[in-house]
Amino acid sequence: MLKILSKEYYGNTLSNWLLVCFLLLMLVILRKIFLFICNRFLLKKLKKIIERKELKDIDNNDEKTFSEITQIGLKHLIKGNDKKNNENIQSPIYAIINDIFNLGSLIVSVITIRYICNLLILPSGLVDFINTVTTITTAIITAWLFQRTYLKLHEEVLTPITDATKNKLDDQLLGPVKHCILFLIWAFAIIIALENAGYHIGAILTGLGIGGLAIAMAAKDTIANILGGFTILADNPFFINDYIRIGEHQGYVQKIGIRSTHLASYGGSIIAIPNAQFTDGVIENFSRVKTKKVSVDLYLNYDNSENQIKKAIKILQNIATTHKNTTEANDDTIVSFYSFGKSAIILKFIYHIDLKSFCNETHELDSQIQKITHKINDIRTNINLQIFTQFQKARIKFQEALEINNN
Length: 407
Hints:
Number of domains: 3
Mean pLDDT: 76
Structural class: alpha+beta
Largest sheet: 5 strands, antiparallel
Low-confidence stretches: 361-367, 402-407
Number of strands: 11
Strand content: 5-15%
Number of helices: 12
Oligomer: single chain
Shape: elongated
Helix content: 55-70%
């Protein structure tokens, strides 16, 4: 028996081969036992704790303090996103810990396999190959673990937090920050894997730097678009869901990317506009308008008496202050004896339509521009009819047809 075990195969005794196989088998068994214990006891107990945990809801309409934002993040970390109507959805903290157990044990197994293989006497080329493969595999699995953890936090925790705050800047930054973090995770993983595999990253980066200038010159438009994207995020000329117009294009802002901004047009098409155009172009943001100014010139006959003119001014002031869709501030309304025309007295009537008066929520200003336009026309028609009817009752005579100027 000892002779058989001491017999060499490919430079190693049979006992060494059997020892390595035994250790690999034990590694697989121990990992299975570890995961079984984690799932059966630790994670099961954690799940019960999560189900019993009660966290109070926070009103999304108020401005959030740092403490309230922390509570919102903690709630979504423990309970998950309430917007997802899925009973089988896992708690983010449960899913993250489960990934740590699974992928963490896999990382330890790969590292252990490397040391187990070192027990054998193998050709130097094969040893280097095994070391390189295990190092790269460890780096990839580690990066995968970090990616899964971050994506779970991004989707289940960070997104609800930004939705709960009134500031829209964090909503815009969330997408670019996500791409940057994922890029950094995999960049570090690749650098560490190559460095530990025996490749000199410094020399590689130096070589890339020599050709970097040529690449930069060739990609100057792309660089301009990337800088334009950061300019949009810093200057905030518009937000997600705003209705804007730039040049010949207009639509709802769907996405603010690093290279381009996507607009959804009324026709249903998606327009991708390079960000560089926003740094030099003129942007018109319709969603920032909360009131609509309407200017009306009324031409009254010279046959009207002084009292009738005063009565006309009083009627206009009363209409502007009592109509449910006009702004309540007196400074927003202007009624004046504007000028003497060649054949008529000219009254100037300026009022502002309060867009919020017929939009139940602020985001409707961003997503119903066409409906708002129709509503504004209906309000103007209603006010003009009131002017016409009350002027007739007061026997105030028009010289010419009512003329409306949009300012």
